[in-house]
Amino acid sequence: MAEPPNITELEQENRSEAPPGGVAERESVPAPRTRPKTRRLIVAGGLVALAVVTGFYFYYRNRVSTDDAQIDGDLYAISARVSGHVIAVEVENNDFVKKGQILARLDPTDYRVAVERAEAEYENALAHAEALHVTVPITSVASSTGISAAQAAVEQAQAELAVAQREYQAADATVKQKQADDAKAQSDLRRYAALVKKGEISRQRYDHTLATAQADAAAVTAAQANALAARQKVAEARAGLLLTQANLRASRTGPQRIRVSRAQADAARAAVKMAKANLDQAQLNLGYTTIRAPADGIVGKKSIEPGQNVEAGQALMAVVPVNGLYVTANFKETQLRHMRPGNPATIHVDAYGRDYKGHVLNIAGATGDRFSLLPPENATGNYVKVVQRIPVKIVFDPGQDPQHLLREGMSVEPTVITKR
Asked: How confident is the model at residue 255, as a pLDDT?
């Protein structure tokens, strides 16, 4: 078995194979160190990172945002101001309308007749007032008019009043008769309507009953108009009687007669004002038969069609405005520490993926649950503290939505820039 080589011999062989000065050089080279350039890059990188972190801190320390927000606006509920029969509907759901644009029309016939009647009453009152105004100086001159003439006028006025009262009684009786006929006709119509649905009577018979009911209803209206006219005549006759009686009393003393004449003139002027007010109201009612849009917006919730009868105050449709929209943002109460009205805001609209500019208009006076139908009660002893949310109203800066793309109810994410 061969002997292992001597360690001294191995070292000599290695020294002989190594290049001159190799071992000495390796032993003299110091341990590698970090290069200055690398050290400078590390320091610079650390400074940049610190600057970025500091920038993010100062950028976001004055910004609060929430995703519990949506676009709101003042929804215009369109309702009828007078009752009537719908003859035309000019818009459909989702139509864009301008302020003042016609939305629907009611049958104006009845209201046009009312205007003509009010005009006639106004002209009559005006003429009567002018006549009484002229009577005042005439009365002053002719204060010595005989009692006999005044007595005859009183008797004539009484006769006219009696005739007017009989006419009114006859007209009132006619109204009651027509109402009874109409009630019977309407009852027959309802009964025949049920029978015709079952096929127990002919359609012709039902149509005849319907025509009779309509005629009776029209007869009631006509009779009521006649009764109203007769009652007006009674009132006029009664006023004439009062006038002649006053003249009779005034004929006994000149000064009293003059005072009565002046009072009549004043009453006539008041009657003119009343008649003018009735005329104005009739004209307003006629104008209300044309229903117009109160603002620029989009039509929704339309619930009327031509041929429908509507009542005053009945909801017809809604107009969603495209101008004056705002954001209702429910911020946490802990986010309101530095928020004030006037703070600028950026509103990110999810639907379009773009940002809009705005500012805080105001902050609600209470949390949202305080305005709920059933506010929470914390008097049971089981109170759990929960961070509340308070609505904040943020308005858009003008001129940012020329194409009217924003809609009520859209989800948005507002970011408010606060000042500390």
From this structure: 64
Contact status, residue 310 vs residue 304, Cβ threshold 8 Å: yes
Amino acid identity, residue 4? P
Euclidean distance between CA atoms 148 and 251, whole angstroms: 9
Residues 6+ apart with CB under 8 A from 339: 64, 331, 360, 363, 392, 416, 418
Mean residue pLDDT of the chain comes to 81
CATH 2.40.30.170 applies to domain 63-72+323-417: yes
Phi, psi of 276 (to 5 degrees): -65, -40
Domain segments of the chain as ranges: 63-72+323-417, 76-107+301-320, 109-290
Distance between CA atoms of residues 370 and 362, nearest Å: 17
Please indicate, yes or no, whether the overall pTM of this predicted structure exceeds 0.70.
no
pLDDT at 135 > cutoff 80 = no
Q: Which two tokens stand for residue 274?
A: 């009343």
* Domain spanning 76-107+301-320: CATH 2.40.50.100: yes
For residues 145 and 135, give the distance between their C-alpha atoms in angstroms, rounded to a whole number: 13
Picking from 115-119, 180-184, 189-193, 266-270, which range would have the lowest pLDDT averaged per residue? 189-193
